Amino acid sequence: MSPPAVSKPRRRWLKPLLVGVGIVGAGLLLSACATQPPPMAGRELPGFLYGLLHGLIAPFSFVYSLVSDTRVYAYPNPGRWYDFGFLLGVSAWGSGGTHVVRR
Prior knowledge:
By secondary structure, the chain is mainly α. It has helices at 14-31, 48-56, 58-67, 80-94.
């Protein structure tokens, strides 16, 4: 009798990996096209506190933006400090749903 044929292991992870790399690559390529308009003369850009406020009201702003021409995110903004404040404000909504369950 001949020995049983050894089959090669299937690489089930390869296709999802290639799709994921393609999606991330396309996102990076498209994000290179994004620009902000120059700030208006005499107008101060929103900073950290405005980012925090805009993050806190983001769910309401999103609902309102569905029926009007309103942005959820300040445009243009100075960058990282506004982004950090916005992230903190939005994350305040998400942390309200977590709680510790006592047994």
